[in-house]
Structures are given as C-alpha cells and as structure tokens.
Amino acid sequence: MDIGYLLWLQGLRQSAPDVVQTFFSFMGSHAATVLTMLIPCVMYWCIDKQRSMLALMSYGMSSVFNQLLKNTVCCYRPWVRDPRVTPDPVAIKGATGYSFPSGHTQSSSSVLGGFGWAWREKRWPMVLGLVFALMVGFSRNFLGVHTPQDVAMGFAEGLAFVLVCDRLIEWADQAPWRDLRIVLWGCALTALYLVYVTVKPYPMDYVDGKLLVDPQEMLIDCYKTGGLLVGVLSGWFVERYWIDFHTGGLKLTQILSRLIAGALVVLVLYVPVGHAIVGLAGEYAGQFIRHALTFFAAVAVVPMLYLRLDALFGRGEP
Fold this sequence. Notes:
This protein is mostly helical and 318 residues long. It has helices at residues 2-15, 18-47, 49-73, 78-81, 103-118, 123-142, 148-172, 178-199, 215-243, 252-281, 283-312, and strands at residues 206-207, 210-211. A two-stranded antiparallel sheet has the order 1-2. Strand 1 and strand 2 form a beta hairpin. Helix 2 (18-47) runs antiparallel to helix 6 and helix 3 (49-73) runs antiparallel to helix 9. It is globular.
C-alpha cells in the first residue's frame, strides 16, 4: 500500500510542471534546513529566548531519538524495496542512510511545533507551524525518498518531544538545580545511546557490489546528534545561571549586530574550526565535539557576546 501510494505520487510528479517539482524540492531540503538551523537561533537570540528554547531542546532530543530508531530498525529506502520507485534526482542526493523515520519531518515538526506550542495562546502560530511541517513531510513522499510511515513517525516523534520538553522546562523552573539534573540525565542517556549504536550489528547488504547503507556513515550521524543535544543542554544550563541575557525591545541596530555576530561565531566554529576538529579527533569523536561546541556556542557563548554588544550600544537591562 505504501509503495502504491508513492507510485501514484510519482506519476503526478513526473507529469507536473517544473515549478511544482522545484517547490517540493525546496520544501523537502532547503526549507527544512533553514527552519531547523537558522530560524531557531534567530528567534532565540533576538525575539524570545524562553519560548525559543523549547524548539531548540525538542529539536535536539527528537534528533537523537530519530537517529536511534533509524539505526535500530535499519529500514531501506523505498527505491531499494521496490525498483519501480524513482525518486527525484535532486532529493536523492540528501536522502542517504536508512529510511525510517523521516529526519526532515522530525526536524520540522519539532522546531515548528515547538514554536507553535510556545505561542499557543495565539492559534495562528500553531496552525501555521503544523501546516508547514506537514508540507515538509508530504514533500518527502512526493519526491519519493520516504514512505508514508516514515513521515508519520517523524511527525509524531517531533510533536511528542515538544510536549516532553515543555514539561521538562516547566519542571526545571519550579526549583533550583533541577535543570542540572536534566543536563546530567541527558548526557548520560546520550552516552548510552552512542555506546548502543556503536556496538550493535548492522545489515551488510550489497547490490552490484555496492553496500546499500554504510554503517559508518550512520554512526557519524549518531555522533552528530549526540553532540547537538549535549551542546544545547549544557548551553541552556550555563546561560540560565551565568549569562541570563535578555530579548525583546531591541533596536534595529542591536538586532542586526546580534545576527551578524551570532552567525559569524556559529559559522566559524562549524566550518573551519569544525573541520579542523574532525581532522584531529577523527569522524566520530570529531563530529561529536564539532556539534557540541557549535550548539553550546549558539545557546551560551553568543549570548555572552550580546551583553557586551548591548553595553556598546547603550542598552540598559530591564
């Protein structure tokens, strides 16, 4: 049934105008990347750090859980299961590894669902966020790179972790040092997760002499998500106790200075510094450190710079 649905969509895609395919390619790749990387940081830095933290935390936790499921189930992509499925040639470049669940859908639903839930007193953010996340998920079916169950699970886990993280943040706010317990438990579970995915066996199936999915590449993705979560959680804790920067009521010059400074710091850490770390520490440890450092900087180090920028522009703290 799932393959039949993909073949039906494939017929629509192949007969659709180029603009339709371009739109869904954008939704299924570039839009999802921007939503999960750029928008949460911009919202956290300049609009409302408390509410934006929900999106960042749910994204980190759901990314680890999504990768855990991928490496446990080890489900192959639709075109491997049925050669009649012909995915979009652009989308297939980013559709590496196992299929279940959809990482793009999980990312968009956790981030957009987090924003929608944080601003749930207004209905339109929740409606807009869910509609956009559903469009990202549907695009993965339309492009032939994921089955409906891949998308449904990705959507469900993203929203589930929004609710989990909302309760965790609320619980942490009720008493001192509860946030430290969340960080320690998060780091401990991340360590167990990395041990599990590293030692477990993986299928080694070949087609025409080529390995269908390289377990080493899947492990790299696991170490990336592990570092991401550790960076977000540790940065959240450090910012709460030792930085405590403020958002809201910013002047245009302050917003621009924050965006430029934040983007520069994150890009430098992720690209040149990150490549150097991977070269020195190897792919597994290097990618873990790279992502932990980048997300820690985005959540804690960049806001520390903002305190100096605010002083430079003469902004008094409320």
